[in-house]
Specification:
mainly alpha, 3 helices
Length: 102
């Protein structure tokens, strides 16, 4: 027959394993959420790309996407972007070597 201390120890181990699994699941959920947000941002940016390219032709040489939009008098939301998308565009363009850090 199993003693009470053995049952208590097994319970502690099971609770610790459960906590570890819950933490791992939380990390997976967070990663999936971040992936979903990035995918959504890519979709918005892809949809806005023709307008961004048109504005770039009208206002060449701007060092940031936000600067381009400001000079053109265009808000991010008016072309389907969220407020922080211009900085995200610049970050990605810098990472890809398309735009230099200014």
């Amino acid at each position: 027959m199993t003693s009470n201390p053995d049952v208590a120890a097994a319970r502690v181990v099971a609770l610790a394993e459960q906590a570890t699994l819950q933490a791992a699941l939380a990390q997976v959920d967070q990663a999936l959420g971040a992936n979903r947000q990035e995918t959504d941002a890519l979709d918005r940016i892809e949809a806005a790309l023709p307008e961004l390219e048109r504005l770039e032709r009208l206002y060449p040489g701007r060092s940031t996407t936000r600067g381009l939009l400001v000079d053109a008098g265009v808000s991010p939301d008016s072309i389907g972007l969220q407020e922080d998308d211009p900085e995200l565009i610049d970050k990605w363009m810098t990472e890809e070597g398309i735009r230099e850090v200014t």
